[in-house]
């Protein structure tokens, strides 16, 4: 079943020059890019995006981080795209959870600065796509 997911390359991924590397892995897996945009997230979009984490100890730092520089926002499509992208990205903690061969496992060291985001369910994907790409 074809599915859509919202992918972000976070500010650390952009500033470290990893856009090409990350896009390459999306395409190599066989997933399709159906929208792609470099932009600065507003505080409002960032807060909407991470609403589920409001109140957690890392929430303020997370909003500061995600608005600290440009991000790449993308809609990625394919069979089981949500799980497929999370497989490529690797677990949230790049050392304890992400395995070598994943984006986080290969290129990241810290849980906050873990390079990429992917929607975690069809409901999250629909909400996040509407937030980042209204009308898409
Ligand atoms: P994401 O939403 O960014 O795809 O990552 P995820 O599902 O793997 O992780 P999630 O639990 O949704 O956390 C969202 C992002 O918040 C930062 N975080 N920091 N310092 C901490 O303990 C902590 N925990 C999470 C990470 O940037 C994580 O990706
Ligand atoms: Mg998440």
From TrEMBL:
Catalysed reactions listed for this entry: a 2'-deoxyribonucleoside 5'-diphosphate + ATP = a 2'-deoxyribonucleoside 5'-triphosphate + ADP; a ribonucleoside 5'-diphosphate + ATP = a ribonucleoside 5'-triphosphate + ADP
Domain of life: Bacteria
EC number(s) given by UniProt: 2.7.4.6
Gene3D superfamilies with a match to the protein in the record: Nucleoside diphosphate kinase-like domain (3.30.70.141)
UniProtKB keywords: ATP-binding, Cytoplasm, Kinase, Magnesium, Metal-binding, Nucleotide metabolism, Nucleotide-binding, Phosphoprotein, Transferase
UniProt cross-references to PROSITE patterns, sorted A to Z: NDPK (PS00469), NDPK_LIKE (PS51374)
Gene Ontology MF terms: kinase activity
Active site: 117
Cofactor(s) annotated in UniProt: Mg(2+)
UniProt: ATP binding residues: 10, 58, 86, 92, 104, 114
Protein's cellular compartments: Cytoplasm
Domain Nucleoside diphosphate kinase-like positions: 2-136
Its biological purpose: Major role in the synthesis of nucleoside triphosphates other than ATP. The ATP gamma phosphate is transferred to the NDP beta phosphate via a ping-pong mechanism, using a phosphorylated active-site intermediate.
Subunit structure: Homotetramer.
Family, per entry: Belongs to the NDK family.
UniProt name for this protein: Nucleoside diphosphate kinase
Organism: Gordonia defluvii
């Amino acid at each position: 079943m074809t599915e859509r997911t919202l992918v972000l390359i976070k500010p650390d991924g952009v500033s470290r020059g990893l856009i090409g590397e990350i896009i390459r892995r999306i395409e190599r897996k066989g997933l399709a890019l159906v929208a792609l945009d470099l932009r600065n997230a507003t505080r409002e979009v960032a807060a909407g995006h991470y609403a589920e984490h409001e109140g957690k100890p890392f929430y303020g730092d997370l909003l500061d981080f995600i608005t600290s520089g440009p991000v790449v926002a993308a809609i990625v499509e394919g069979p089981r795209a949500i799980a497929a992208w999370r497989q490529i990205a690797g677990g949230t903690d790049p050392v304890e959870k992400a395995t070598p061969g994943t984006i986080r496992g290969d290129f990241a060291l810290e849980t906050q600065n873990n390079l990429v985001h992917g929607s975690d369910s069809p409901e999250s994907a629909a909400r996040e796509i509407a937030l980042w790409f209204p009308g898409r």
